[in-house]
Amino acid sequence: MVSTSGGYGGLNGAVESMLRQAQEQQRRLAEFQRQRAELRVTGESPDGLVRVTVDGEMKVGDIEINARAMRLDSFSLAESLQAAIDAAYAAFGEHQQELLTEMLGGSELVRQAQAGTLTPEDWFRRFGVDLGDPFRGLRR
Predict the structure, then answer these.
(1) pLDDT tens digit string along 20-56?
(2) Please, what is the Cα angle at 79 between 75 and 83, to 5 degrees?
(3) Which residues of the chain have pLDDT under 70?
(4) Contact 99, 32 (CB under 8 A)
(5) Can you tell me the distance from the alpha carbon of 60 to that of 53, in angstroms, rounded to the nearest whole number?
(6) What sign for the dihedral angle of Cα 65, 71, 73, 76?
(7) β-pair partners for 121
(8) pLDDT at residue number 84
(9) φ, ψ (nearest 5 deg) of residue 49
(10) 65 contacts 72 by C-beta, under 8 angstroms
(11) What's the predicted TM-score (pTM) here?
């Protein structure tokens, strides 16, 4: 039974609290997206002859090829280029993981999100909202 003392103040307070929490999550997500968009990471080939930069959209941007690489045959140069691209993408993934962990506030939520097992209920519960019983605390 919902408490009637004070009218619907308790219900309004609960809704306002949930709204504030949802807005906070929205702010966190926007900040994550902004930081991700600003990411620029560099990967280098093991031989050090090629460096590649990947931006926040995961697009290859700058490619630096050392003059010594021009002595390589085309196959070896292609391998160095691919290795640098792979290293840049791996570094991007690591940085994105750090941002996500920071946003979610814990590695367990990140693991669940990556596995596709993070439910909305789990997400909100992490921040103190029980979607299964939004009127808890309003009952006497």
Answers:
(1) 877 887 888 888 888 888 999 999 999 999 999 999 9
(2) 170
(3) 1-11, 105-107, 109-110, 126-140
(4) yes
(5) 6
(6) negative
(7) none
(8) 97
(9) -90, -20
(10) no
(11) 0.63
